């Protein structure tokens, strides 16, 4: 029982609860906007669709789900606002918080009459009545509701972005998600405007009703005391305004009182670079850094989903609180040492000395705590290294311009082979090159279940395709170098020979570098092994050295291929490598393409 209560009150559960409540409300808003867009078809179509949606949201279960999600989401937002020790945050996070707090003040004016008119006074609110009220009777109110629509939708889209941005498939899906995010509110506003103009034109051109007809029509309708309706609705709306404003004021007051109380019990945080920050007891290290103006990485925004805010504990005056579930999972994932903690999750209760393990960006033009980096993620990729043999000796006997000419021809061969195979040319290093294949098929921390299935034998399509592409590119490089030798042999009296290494496995992929030289690249054991295989190809005097893992994923048959066991620095067991000559590579490229 105690474990169940602890799980329900954990930060991870509350984050998921807040996300789930937000998605429920976003689904309601999306259906509402879609219904507005149907006004472009006809008013009757929107009315019929609105009645279908009402069956979902206006029954007791739907009403409880919607308003329960609203209450939970708002309560957790206010809780998050109270728990923050500093209001300094990245711009996107600040925009999402500000828009979220603004939404209730924008929708109360419209939501209260639309939801309560029928149950309280028997007034059926339909599209014709709402659009006429907002466009013809009170256009200023219509403008305010249009702004509210955009604010609500923007808040929801920012939340979805924060939720999905680290998913491996997000980069390819983001253009379509952006199109939906733009088209839905635009079509909804166009539908509202089109129907509003139609109703305004009908009101201007409709014949005037004589007094006798008006009296007869009024006699058939149930009497409604409009003044009483307006007064009651006004009181209800005022109550909601005061309740929400009071909740915000209560949170801000509680924050202020906490700050005053904590000033008497501040702790000192010393950084290895000499910086010193005095912060309230219980503040997270990341928040203390932000408050004290110390640059501190936090790619995920302080949610414990990355390890970029990690610190090494050098000295502490009192025992540190143990890692929570979120921090423990992340530290386990990165195989952190016992003295390493996450800055966003650690709340020291006494003086502490730390070393930031992720060097902050030295560009002082950037605001504190906003690092323009793309977070790395683990991906299953294939890596290719290639290098010209004995090119140093070859270049010493040639004119500089001839050397540049030969290198550019060689680089063109490598670049075209990589691009035609579907890979990404990462970099040229002297007369060597590095290329990546299968990018975009990785997994992140939120995809662990999928990763477990992958390890159980279900290979993602991109992982195998990357290995096939790398082998096809390697064979194409060897083939085209042979063609270049035949073309230049008489004029340059030169025979270029290339050594290629290919390996596949998990690597960390992300944008790395400094200033304008940042680019997407990969680091890790897979890259190191691929580089080692390129050297192995030279040592065994073959064109291509490919690891058993990469060859197995490519689907290419290994019959008749020579192999060897080589030692890799940092690995306990030797690695089986297949050695492919220039002659074998001609068959090899055909099999790679078929596979």
Output the keywords:
single chain; 3 domains; 58% helix; globular; Ubiquitin-like (UB roll); Alpha-Beta Plaits; five-stranded mixed sheet
CATH homologous superfamily heading of the largest domain: Nucleotide cyclase, GGDEF domain
Distance between termini?
54 Å
Helix content: 55-70%
SS-derived structural category: alpha+beta
Low-pLDDT stretches are 216-221, 361-374, 441-460
Main sheet attributes: strand count, strand direction, barrel closure: 8 strands, mixed
CATH class of the largest domain: Alpha Beta
How would the global form be characterised?
Answer: globular
Characterise this structure.
The chain has 595 residues and is an alpha+beta fold. It has 3 domains: 2-203, 3 helical TM bundles of succinate and fumarate reductases; 265-356, Ubiquitin-like (UB roll), CATH 3.10.20.30; 377-594, Alpha-Beta Plaits. It is built from 19 helices and 13 strands. The protein has helices spanning 2-8, 11-37, 43-57, 60-83, 91-121, 127-137, 139-164, 170-205, 211-220, 226-262, 285-292, 325-333, 391-396, 400-421, 448-455, 461-492, 525-539, 548-554, 582-594; strands at 266-271, 276-280, 310-316, 340-342, 352-356, 377-388, 424-429, 432-437, 498-512, 519-523, 544-547, 562-566, 575-580. A hairpin with an 8-residue loop joins strand 12 and strand 13. Helix 5 (91-121) packs across helix 7 and helix 5 (91-121) packs antiparallel against helix 10. The chain is globular, with a radius of gyration of 32 Å. The chain starts with a helix and ends with a helix.
């Amino acid at each position: 029982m105690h474990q169940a209560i602890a799980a329900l009150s954990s930060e991870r559960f509350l984050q998921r609860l807040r996300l789930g409540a937000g998605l429920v409300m976003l689904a309601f808003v999306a259906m509402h906007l879609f219904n507005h867009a149907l006004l472009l078809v006809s008013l009757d179509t929107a009315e019929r669709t609105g009645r279908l949606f009402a069956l979902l949201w206006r029954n007791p279960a739907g009403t409880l789900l919607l308003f329960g999600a609203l209450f939970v989401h708002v309560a957790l937002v206010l809780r998050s606002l109270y728990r923050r020790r500093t209001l300094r945050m990245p711009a996107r996070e600040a925009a999402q918080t500000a828009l979220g707090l603004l939404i209730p003040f924008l929708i109360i004016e419209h939501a209260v009459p639309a939801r309560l008119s029928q149950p309280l006074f028997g007034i059926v609110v339909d599209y014709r009545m709402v659009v006429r009220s907002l466009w013809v009777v009170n256009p200023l109110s219509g403008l305010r509701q249009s702004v509210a629509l955009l604010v609500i939708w923007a808040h929801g889209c920012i939340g979805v972005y924060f939720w999905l941005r680290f998913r491996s498939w997000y980069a390819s899906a983001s253009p379509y998600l952006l199109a939906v995010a733009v088209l839905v509110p635009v079509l909804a506003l166009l539908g509202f405007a089109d129907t509003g103009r139609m109703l305004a034109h009908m009101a201007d051109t409709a014949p005037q009703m004589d007094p006798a007809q008006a009296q007869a029509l009024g006699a058939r309708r149930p009497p409604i005391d409009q003044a009483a309706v307006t007064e009651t609705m006004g009181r209800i709306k005022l109550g909601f305004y005061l309740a929400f404003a009071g909740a915000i004021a209560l949170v801000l007051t509680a924050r202020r009182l906490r700050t005053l109380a904590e000033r008497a019990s501040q702790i000192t945080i010393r950084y290895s670079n000499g910086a010193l920050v005095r912060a309230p007891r219980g503040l997270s290290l990341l928040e203390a850094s932000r408050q004290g103006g110390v640059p501190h990485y936090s790619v995920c925004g302080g949610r414990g989903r990355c390890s970029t805010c990690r610190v090494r504990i050098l000295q502490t005056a009192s025992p540190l609180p143990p890692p929570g579930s979120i921090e423990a999972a992340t530290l386990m994932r990165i195989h952190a040492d016992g003295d390493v903690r996450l800055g966003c999750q650690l709340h020291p209760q006494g003086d502490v000395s730390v070393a930031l393990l992720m060097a902050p960006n030295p560009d002082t033009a950037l605001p504190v705590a906003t690092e323009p980096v793309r977070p790395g993620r683990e991906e299953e990729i294939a890596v290719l290294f290639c290098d010209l043999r004995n090119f140093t000796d070859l270049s010493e006997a040639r004119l500089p311009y001839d050397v540049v000419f030969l290198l550019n021809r060689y680089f063109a061969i490598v670049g075209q082979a990589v691009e035609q195979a579907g890979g990404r040319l990462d970099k040229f290093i002297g007369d060597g090159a590095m290329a990546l294949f299968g990018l975009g098929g990785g997994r992140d921390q939120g995809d662990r279940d999928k990763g477990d299935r992958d390890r159980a034998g279900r290979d993602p399509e991109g992982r195998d395709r990357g290995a096939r592409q790398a082998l096809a590119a390697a064979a194409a490089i060897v083939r085209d170098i042979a063609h270049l030798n035949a073309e230049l042999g008489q004029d340059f009296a030169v025979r270029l020979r290339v050594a290629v290494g290919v390996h596949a496995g998990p690597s960390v992929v992300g944008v790395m570098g400094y200033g304008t030289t940042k680019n997407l690249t990969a680091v890790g054991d897979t890259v190191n092994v691929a580089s080692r295989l390129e050297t192995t190809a030279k040592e065994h005097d073959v064109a291509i050295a490919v690891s058993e893992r990469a060859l197995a994923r490519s689907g290419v048959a290994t019959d008749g291929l020579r192999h060897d066991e080589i030692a890799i620095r940092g690995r306990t067991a030797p690695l089986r490598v297949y050695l492919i000559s220039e002659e074998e590579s001609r068959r090899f490229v055909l099999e790679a393409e078929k596979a």
